[in-house]
Amino acid sequence: MIALLDGDVMVYACGFASEENVYELTLGNEIHEFRYKRDLDDWVRLNVADGEKYTVEKIVKVPPKSHSFHNARQLLNKTLERVSAKDFKIYLTGKNNFRDKVATIRGYKAHRDKPAKPVHYEELKQYLIDTFDAEVVDGMEADDAMAIKQMEHYTNLDDYTVICSIDKDLDQVPGWHYNWNKDELYKITEDYALRYYAKQMLTGDSTDNILGIPGMGPKKAEKLIAEVAVDDLPNVIMGAYKKAFSDKSVYSKYNIPETMSWEDIYNETDKLIRIKWTLDD
Q1: 149 close to 89: Cβ distance less than 8 angstroms
Q2: Rounded distance, CA 11 to CA 8, Å?
Q3: Which SS3 state, helix, strand or coil, does residue 3 take?
Q4: Which whole-number Å values give the CA distances from 266 to 178, 241, 278, in the listed order?
Q5: Average pLDDT for the chain
Q6: What percentage of residues in the chain have a pLDDT greater than 90?
Q7: Are 91 and 6 in contact (CB under 8 A)?
Q8: Residues contacting 280, CB < 8 A, separation 6+
Q9: 8 Å CB contact between 175 and 162
Q10: pLDDT in tens, 80-120
């Protein structure tokens, strides 16, 4: 078994795990430090009179970068032991993700605030590259690279690789998966993977700023495809897009360019949602 690890998640998880956020309260000449906001609130309620002025500052205490490196080694070793891997590969997302150019209706992940990064973010990425030969993937995402590698060897009886991540989008990919947050090792069938993709096509993905079918929630999507044969799923999805977007009067509500047809909307969503199984996808 070869473990395919999501280096993007590793960097954030291991970097933040080594940092400590504290709240520093200044009241007159006194300074009090609290690990948790709830403890600060409790202290204020018991010790600060109405109208008494104080200030609070959130401070990140940053240990040496070696602490982040230790967290990464520990996560890697525990994961490899848990999935009984004889080898592994770590993947990191590089630059020029094709989805950024595909997205015209809404910017891909553009609604997100600029994410906070661990203080040792760059050092930890470089550590994974230098120490564990992590692969930096340009043109697509680490998710795609892991999926392509898994599908190179996938058959229903093949236990050659296991995708290790906490990203549920990867459930579009058949084969073994391991979620290290839940300590859950599970196998995705091809039927389930295709149905999971179909559901995401219908609902869109609010996390990644992908529209989908307006008003189509998970339960409604599951009901729509529940009795549909896998081979017929594309027709059902296209039918839902045609029904939702043939009337261009809805376009302005969702900032869809008037020049787009329902087929254009379908094709764009497919390219954004679909995790690559091959380089040609």
Answers
A1: yes
A2: 5
A3: strand
A4: 31, 6, 20
A5: 92
A6: 77
A7: yes
A8: none
A9: yes
A10: 999 999 999 999 999 999 999 999 988 877 655 556 788 89
**In contact, 146 and 105? CB cutoff 8 Å:** no
For the record, the structure tokens of 207 come out as 């996390």
Backbone angles phi, psi at 90, to 5 degrees: -105, 135
Residues 6+ apart with CB under 8 A from 211: 105, 106, 204, 254, 256, 265, 269
Task: For residue 170, give every residue at least 6 positions away whose Cβ sits within 8 Å of its Cβ, in sequence order, or none.
Answer: 6, 143, 146, 147, 163, 177, 275
pLDDT computed for residue 157 by the predictor: 63
In the numeric block, the tokens 């360019």 are attached to 257
* pLDDT value, residue 38: 92
Q: How far apart are CA 203 and CA 226, in angstroms?
A: 15
Q: In this structure, are strands 175-179 and 161-164 parallel, antiparallel, or unpaired?
A: parallel
Question: CA 171, CA 6: separation in Å to the nearest integer?
Answer: 14
Q: What is the mean pLDDT of residues 147-167?
A: 87
DSSP 158-210: --SEEEE-S-GGGGGS-EEEEETTTTEEEEE-HHHHHHHHHHHHHH-BTTTTB
Q: How many other C-beta atoms can be found within 10 angstroms of the C-beta atom of residue 72?
A: 26
Both tokens of 178, joined, read: 């391991």
